[in-house]
Amino acid sequence: MTLSLGFPQLQWPLTRPGQTQHHNSIRSNHTSATSKPWHSSPSKPPTVHPTTATPLPEQLRSIMRLLPHSVVVCTSNQPGDGPRAMTMSSFTSLTLSPTPLVTFNIATPSRTLDAIRASGGFNVHVLAGDERGARVANHFTKGNVGGHVLEDLEGLGYSYTDGEPGKEAPVLKGEGVMFALRCRVLRDAPESGLVRVRDHVIVVGEVVEMVRVEGEEEFGLAYADRKYRQVGGVLEK
């Protein structure tokens, strides 16, 4: 069942001057299906052990699994066909001036990449580094096939900055999402901001707005050794 809900903790306007707020621009979806809840567990030693006895690609794969990576959810909109979304761990900043740029890479083929290429815009969502963020990240690892990608978002909602669906990438809202970065593809970059490297495409985007979603500031969700991770202790001198 789809409900139209507002989120009073949001600190950005759902409409801008001259825009109309549609009753269905914020949606929260609920499912009756039950699943095992996410929870934290004690830290464990790595399960991978890089060795030169394996082929070089496997050596690199093992080493990369020892390095924590940020986990974000990227949304976009395929004109005429609706929203697309995916969880990714390759997101990073590129430069802050003269305008802030971010980058990530996507394996091809990808429906989310097709939407980014067609629409020229996308939103990157920074997730809470706890069970709530892990739940959101896991939802968007299921791909864009077989129904609406934003269905069954238990405890989450989404909205469109233009007040109606179909024109811009949706902004996720609710528990587990701390911030959203509204971005557009940097068209004046090489290859119009979409650089193909073998079977991947590197996306270069310009940040046009930061949206505060919910909760207090905390460290974001990380991923290493095939598990979601929380930032741990501090090394000081």
UniProtKB/TrEMBL annotation:
The question of whether Transferase is a record keyword is answered with no
Q: Any idea which GO molecular function terms this record carries?
A: FMN binding; riboflavin reductase (NADPH) activity
The ranges of region (Disordered) come to 1-54
Q: Specify residue ranges for compositional bias: Polar residues.
A: 17-34
Identify the residues that the record assigns to the Flavin reductase like domain, covering every copy: 64-230
Q: Which InterPro entries match?
A: Flavin_Rdtase-like_dom, NADH-dep_flavin_reductase, Split_barrel_FMN-bd
Q: Does the keyword Lyase apply?
A: no
Q: Which UniProt keywords apply?
A: Oxidoreductase
Q: Which SMART domains match?
A: Flavin_Reduct (SM00903)
Q: Which Pfam families match?
A: Flavin_Reduct
Gene3D superfamilies, per the entry: Electron Transport, Fmn-binding Protein, Chain A
Give the top-rank taxon of the lineage listed in the UniProt record for this protein.
Eukaryota
Name of this protein: Flavin reductase like domain-containing protein
Q: What is the lineage of its organism?
A: Eukaryota, Fungi, Dikarya, Ascomycota, Pezizomycotina
